[in-house]
Amino acid sequence: MAGHSKWANIKHRKARQDASRGKIWTKVIREITVAAKGGADPDDNPRLRLALDKANASNMPKDTIKRAIQKGSGTGEMGIIEELTFEGYGPNGVAILVETMTDNRNRTVADVRHAFSKFGGNMGTDGSVAYLFNKLGIIQVASSYEEDSIMEIALDAGADDFIVADEFFEIITSPVNLSSVLEALHLQEIATLDAEITMRAETLVHLDQETSEKVLKIMNFMDDLDDVQEVHTNAEFPDDFEEEA
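^ that's the sequence the OP posted. Answer follows.
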């Protein structure tokens, strides 16, 4: 059941870097706004509840959170934020899936297209790579907890898989079971490092060191675009890539 996740380590490191630069707030505000379209009550809206957890973890002011909820639920200032997904190929033909939230479709299309071309990639058509990815719930728990105990709680609550990474345990669920697994962990007073619904490739493309660096460059550049929320790939990086990157 337990395995090793290379990309989880790289993504976790990137998340820490984003937080240190303060970029995480912009993305979380957009996530709250879009999630709130499904209802302003987090008890009835699991997606909003996840977004609020991220906001609280990043010490976002309550007034900022309130405005984002009001905007998304239609009770605050006017403005439309839409979700757009872009598909394409990076170096060595690896698949790249880009999730965005934007109030200016033309700007976002131009920015993402430029990011692909700048690093030797190509923007694809709708459906060109999306079929390679599955939507999953992902929960991260610090590895300081007892492995067998965390695994048992997660699986009993409906988790599908349990992965051991370098700094944390990664619990994989279906999107609909994410909230129930989170609740089971919290009832046992187990803190989580992160929880989200994300896209993950079922089949990976193994890369060497040089190509891994090229792929990570395009993903980091893409991730730094203001409208980009998440960047996914089917690339599999070498075991020692994180140390050498």
